[in-house]
Amino acid sequence: MPTPPVLERLAACAEAADLSGEPDREAVAVLRASGLLALVVPKCYGGAGADAVALNTCVEQVASVNASAAIMLFQHCAVTSRIVENGSPAQHREALPRLADGRWLAASAWSESGAGADKKNLATRADRTPDGGWLLDGAKSFTTSAGLADVYLVLAQTPDEAPAAASSRDTGYGAAGQTFFLVPGDHPGLIPDTSMRLTGMRGSATGFVSVRACVVPDSARLGATGVAASIIGRVRDSGASLGAVAVGLAQAALDTAHAHAERRGLYVHQAVRHRLVDLATEVESARAVVERAGRRTAADPGMTTLHSKLAASAAAERVVADVARFLGSAGYVETHPINRFGRDARAVALMGPTNDLCKELVSLPWNR
């Protein structure tokens, strides 16, 4: 779990990054030195071997002080988990120790302009080279940690090479014939662009990543050719939930409301106390469903993970908006943290799978 000094340092750089809109390199340096990047790496490779409950709790705590750092941490752990689950022994030996000790920050490069939230119409292609490697060509958008990551998990459309049967099953997310590749951040064919100016999560270095004339060996392929859709489909079964980021933001807003009430002597009013109780109940309810997702005790753990993102992100937006009203004119100052919380909370609903896609994934089996 993050220590108080780590949380203090992350909190200190959150405001500056939000004002500048520049990638929060200081927060990344804190994450690298904190040991948090080792969360989901198995102990035999120098990691903490944490389960989804511990991961969600850690991400929540980081999000309560720096949501941009939390989403970078979450994405790093998501990519790391895919390597743990699908990597070859050689990939494990090379990548996992580096991902654990902070030398490598991982990022996912899945989204594309025009591909849709469900990643079914990818323009990025990977074609075989004469020596058995791959030539990647395409452009990715909304890649968190763009320009900061040391390794990217790139999703590309590959030629039909008789992919495994699992890849042909419609998971609602991804399509048959797609393959994952691990591409180093310093590869000359990988070009990050952080010119995108976001409203929220402004320190997260979310931007574009292009792969042009990007030649990688076959050893860069993660998993079998053409089965990326099945790998994506299993992601939600892990219990790791972006709802944890939303819970952290909701808790930060609630803490802000309590600080305001105490400073103004408002606890004497029953209406104020009860209003704060209602907000606390929303936060606890969201935290509970995220924890249930992490425990994977439901009959269908994947569905619970999707519900947890929907419930927590909606709760965070409600809580932040209610706290903003509670603060009155005190919160109407541009630099007040509540405004950052609101912009960051809105971003969670737009992160993959987006809330609209979550609803589609939940309801897809009903239409079969």
From TrEMBL:
What is the required cofactor set for this protein? FAD
The organism sits in which domain of life? Bacteria
InterPro entries on file: Acyl-CoA_Oxase/DH_mid-dom (IPR006091), Acyl-CoA_Oxase/DH_mid-dom_sf (IPR046373), AcylCo_DH-like_C (IPR036250), AcylCo_DH/oxidase_C (IPR009075), AcylCoA_DH/ox_N (IPR013786), AcylCoA_DH/ox_N_sf (IPR037069), AcylCoA_DH/oxidase_NM_dom_sf (IPR009100)
Q: Which residues form the signal peptide?
A: none
Please state every residue range assigned to the domain named Acyl-CoA dehydrogenase/oxidase N-terminal.
8-102
Describe the location of the Acyl-CoA oxidase/dehydrogenase middle domain by residue ranges. Answer: 108-210
Domain (Acyl-CoA dehydrogenase/oxidase C-terminal): give its ranges: 240-357
Q: Which UniProt keywords apply?
A: FAD, Flavoprotein, Oxidoreductase
- Is-annotated flag, keyword Flavoprotein? yes
UniProt family annotation? Belongs to the acyl-CoA dehydrogenase family.
What name appears for this protein in its UniProt entry?
A: Acyl-CoA dehydrogenase family protein
Q: Which organism is it from?
A: Streptomyces durocortorensis
